[in-house]
Amino acid sequence: MVTARLAVEEHGRDAMAVPGAADSHMSAGCHMAIRNGWAQLVTSSEDVVEALRGDYTASRSMAQ
Q: What is the pLDDT of residue 58?
């Protein structure tokens, strides 16, 4: 998590996170990154493809 956050904050990289079970301590880091807005939520391979194309934000905002 430290490496991912530094990549985002200090190097302008994008981060994606796949959420896990809400009651699992193993998922806490991914959930925090998504909640705090420095990682994009990934629920399918399509999310990754859209992000790599640069379509992620536009497609998500239209769906809401």
A: 44
Question: 45 to each of 11, 18, 40, 49, 52, how far by Cα in Å?
Answer: 25, 10, 13, 6, 11
38-52 burial, b at 16+ Cβ within 10 Å, e below that, comes to: bbbbbeeeebeebbe
**Domain chopping of the chain, boundaries:** 2-63
Instruction: Give the rounded distance of the alpha carbon of 49 from its chain centre.
Output: 13
The answer on pLDDT for 59 being more than 80 is no
Q: According to the model, what pLDDT value does residue 57 have?
A: 53
